[in-house]
């Protein structure tokens, strides 16, 4: 368990860097995810910043908890293309999750929050559940029709190839032209750059990362398939001449804190 004070120190350091959004915590069952039980305590100690704060929720109750805090600008909801993973991740079917999303979308509209929907297993899954771009497009349309305008394609277990990332992003983005279509990619260190560049070259403008690539999905079955390393993302963007607005001195400070916290 990471002490609450360390979470606050780290996230406050991240708020100095200049990121668009920080995924800072989650209002989910403390019994199922004890690490997130102190999310309300954390947000009370976060300093003002132009960076938006995003909280992950899995049901209406979690959304209602998040709505108590004006500082939160975004609610993130994990919606899986894979029925198996949706059941494992949120204890609900895809259809039940759409019902939850309907309620959460209304809450967001009523309280001036933005909804971010993560299309989990958006490039395939390890369960044998049917997947192709048509199926992805079908469920994205469902989410879009509910009002989601920020949708992130998540390679939850790192199965996507660079060619697949390019194909999917290139096909999906034009279909949802008034959406911000992003990517949440997981990768081994060897495959990171090619997948990231495939997303960038396909016009993706919202990219999730984690300092040092910390984290990942336990279902991946490979400890190297972590989140995209933020520094690698920044380097790729800079090599392409894309201005990020990131304060690299502040980034190094946050990176130093991360390495101390997560060294074990």
In short:
With 264 residues, this protein is α/β, with parallel strands linked by helices. It is built from ten helices and eight strands.
Strand and helix map with partners:
Blueprint: H1 4-14, E1 21-27, H2 39-44, E2 52-57, H3 60-66, E3 74-80, H4 83-90, H5 94-111, E4 114-120, H6 133-146, E5 150-155, H7 162-175, E6 180-187, H8 192-201, E7 206-207, E8 226-227, H9 230-239, H10 248-261
Parallel strand pairs: 1-2, 2-3, 3-4, 4-5, 5-6, 6-7
Antiparallel strand pairs: 6-8
Core attributes:
264 residues; alpha/beta; 8-stranded mixed beta sheet; 10 helices; 42% helix; globular
What can you tell me about this protein's structure?
With 264 residues, this protein is an alpha/beta fold. It has a single domain, classed as Alpha-Beta Barrel (TIM Barrel). 42% of the residues lie in helices and 17% in strands. It is built from ten helices and eight strands. Strands 1, 2, 3, 4, 5, 6, 7 and 8 form an eight-stranded mixed sheet that branches. α3 links the parallel β2 and β3. α1 packs antiparallel against α10. The mean pLDDT is 92.
* Helicity range: 40-55%
CATH superfamily: Aldolase class I
Named CATH topology: TIM Barrel
Largest sheet, if any?
Answer: 8 strands, mixed
């Amino acid at each position: 368990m990471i002490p609450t004070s360390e979470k606050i120190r780290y996230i406050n350091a991240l708020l100095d860097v200049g990121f668009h959004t920080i995924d800072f915590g989650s209002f989910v069952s403390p019994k199922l995810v004890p690490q997130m039980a102190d999310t309300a305590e954390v947000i009370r100690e976060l300093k003002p910043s132009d960076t938006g704060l995003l909280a992950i929720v899995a049901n209406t109750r979690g959304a209602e908890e998040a709505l108590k805090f004006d500082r939160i600008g975004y609610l993130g909801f994990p919606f899986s293309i894979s029925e198996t993973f949706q059941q494992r991740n949120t204890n609900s079917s895809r259809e039940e999750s759409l019902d939850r999303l309907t309620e959460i979308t209304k809450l967001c509209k009523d309280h001036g929050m933005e909804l971010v929907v993560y299309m989990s297993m958006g490039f395939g899954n390890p369960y044998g559940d049917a997947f192709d771009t048509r199926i992805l497009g079908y469920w994205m349309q469902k989410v879009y029709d509910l009002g989601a305008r920020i949708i992130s394609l998540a390679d939850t277990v790192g199965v996507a190839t660079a060619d697949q990332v390019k194909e999917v992003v290139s096909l999906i983005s034009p279909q949802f032209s008034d959406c911000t279509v992003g990517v949440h990619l997981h990768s081994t260190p060897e495959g990171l750059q090619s997948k990231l560049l495939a997303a960038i070259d396909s016009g993706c403008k919202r990219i999730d990362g984690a300092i040092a690539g910390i984290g990942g999905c336990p279902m991946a079955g490979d400890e190297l398939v972590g989140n995209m390393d933020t520094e690698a993302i920044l380097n790729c963007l800079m090599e392409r001449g894309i201005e990020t607005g990131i304060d690299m001195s502040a980034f190094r400070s946050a990176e130093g804190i991360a390495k101390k916290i997560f060294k074990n």
